[in-house]
Amino acid sequence: MTPLWQREPVGVVGLGLIGGSLGLDLMAMGAQVRALVHRQATAERAAQRGLATEVSTDPVVLAGCGLVVLALPLDRLLDPDPALVAALPAGAVITDVGSVKAPVLRRWWELLAAAGDGPAPCRFVASHPMAGTARAGVEAGEPGLFRGRPWVATPEAGTDPAALEAVRELAEALGARWLCCDAEAHDRAVALISHLPVLVGAALLQAANAGGGAEAGAALVRALASSGFADTTRVGGGNPELGMLMARANRAALLEALGHYRHSLACLEAMVAGEQWSDLQQSLELSHQLRPDFL
Amino acid sequence: MTPLWQREPVGVVGLGLIGGSLGLDLMAMGAQVRALVHRQATAERAAQRGLATEVSTDPVVLAGCGLVVLALPLDRLLDPDPALVAALPAGAVITDVGSVKAPVLRRWWELLAAAGDGPAPCRFVASHPMAGTARAGVEAGEPGLFRGRPWVATPEAGTDPAALEAVRELAEALGARWLCCDAEAHDRAVALISHLPVLVGAALLQAANAGGGAEAGAALVRALASSGFADTTRVGGGNPELGMLMARANRAALLEALGHYRHSLACLEAMVAGEQWSDLQQSLELSHQLRPDFL
């Protein structure tokens, strides 16, 4: 059967990096895209950029959509505008793009149940397209952002299989690699490989700043920092609000990840302090061997 | 006056990444390059690659050099072959390229004093060209490696000013940015911006491995790791022997840097644990603002 995104208009809520890129690709594939944005200036610029067929600040624009993608930041996903929830077409498949899944899933199942959906099967599919650049806002969207990147869905026993299939068809049409896993497993994994690196790199910047001291020392540390330091701190020096929102939404898993990290670092430090040089080399050898698995 | 490297043959001890690149640039600038290597196979390949005018495994090749660059790994700089020390021409300016300066400086001043140089001014100039790639060995040398990169010298009160000047002329001819600072200040700075990132990234790889657990969890963590994780762990997953040698030679400064790092990370962790979200965002904002200073 023709995929849902081809049969019925697709709603996109938010036209930042993810929503805008989604709009560009869907438009290029001939889909009808109806976008809801917060500000009139964004609506005008989005129309100029061709991110959607129709774009409006009025939630009524979503009427008639068979599939709605909530491309909103985590805080607005977890505390959505009641007018948005009320405007979602009855029976439409709803998905999101948040980088933390368990709290989003819980929140939206409650919201839809309260809005009259009643018991499962639930038409809300929690999902996470893992595509990012440093850019944000209405200028950030770019064609082909999802191609070759993982798009993780976290269905539960109550998820409507047809809704899950509709989101899978969308993700695969965009060229993403489709993966399904448990929401808690997803959140633990992203805590380790995405949220922990933010704190690890942020702490390194602050340590280099504090350790360099004032004046000559501080200037020397800055003059000698090279590409290795730049790479290690890239995500740690990223968007502060985004970093905070991810930590807040994924607090428990992030604290667990920090526990693992503190332990690993303490072992390395103990080897340096104890002058256990062959142990240190073996431990660095383990890290060296692990890294290709993560690329 | 014509720089020393143009007037007299330049000795290069070791033809790995640094020594080989040095040889290529010096040869291109018309210098006489006499290289000492450890193995006959290296000597043959170095001659094929045109890394030096003469290359030999016999220290006698250094006879007649006015300037000798010790392009050796840290362990061999700190515990050099007595035959090498004996073969250094009397009066020649000697410099090294090690990434830790205070122990190398101490060691070589003792060695040269014991070899008959007597009291200062000392013709040994401790220096550190901060140019690196992931490559090593006789194939690694490349033209233009030093261009635009810092080349730090750490002279002391007893350093012969003419020797320092000869090394500066060499560094600047290679296009490097010349900097002088105190050896201890250099070692504290590189502990923060070069040696600490190795341990920070190595610990992150081990935490992601441990935190992912077995089977499905481990596979998921690996599948979801993206460019942010790859960048944060690039130097941490690098050459284990190099990482160990740097830690061993710069142990005190590295432990001090780790102390700063542990403090910065503990502050961030306490904000997550204590749900101090506005403090966390402010702290991440500080890291965000600091990073451009280090690029």
Beta-sheet strand percentage of chain A?
5-15%
Q: Write the element-wise H/E pattern of chain A from the N-terminal end onward.
A: HEHEHEEHHEHEEEHEHHHHHH
Largest interface: A-B, 93 and 93 residues
Number of self-contained structural domains of chain A: 2
Annotation, overall tally of beta strands of chain A: 9
Classified by CATH, the class of the largest domain in chain A is Alpha Beta
Summarize the structure.
With 295 residues, chain A is an alpha/beta fold.
Q: What are the key terms here?
A:
2 domains, alpha/beta, homodimer, Rossmann fold, 6-stranded parallel β-sheet, 295 residues, 6-phosphogluconate dehydrogenase C-terminal fold
Task: Report what the structure shows.
- Two copies of one chain form a homodimer.
- Chain A has helices spanning 4-7, 17-28, 40-49, 74-78, 82-87, 102-117, 161-173, 183-212, 215-224, 227-232, 240-249, 251-273, 277-290, and strands spanning 10-13, 33-36, 54-56, 67-70, 93-96, 124-125, 127-129, 150-153, 177-180.
- Chain A is α/β, with parallel strands linked by helices and 295 residues long.
- Chain A folds into two domains: 4-181, 3-Layer(aba) Sandwich (Rossmann fold); 186-294, 6-phosphogluconate dehydrogenase C-terminal like domain (6-phosphogluconate dehydrogenase C-terminal fold).
- In chain A, the strands form two sheets. The first copy, chain A, has a six-stranded parallel beta sheet with strand order 3-2-1-4-5-6, sandwiched between helices.
- In chain A, helix 2 (17-28) links the parallel strand 1 and strand 2.
- The longest helix of chain A is centred in the last third of the chain and has 30 residues, at 183-212.
- Chains A and B meet through helix 8, helix 9, helix 10, helix 11 and helix 12 of A and helix 8, helix 9, helix 10, helix 11 and helix 12 of B.
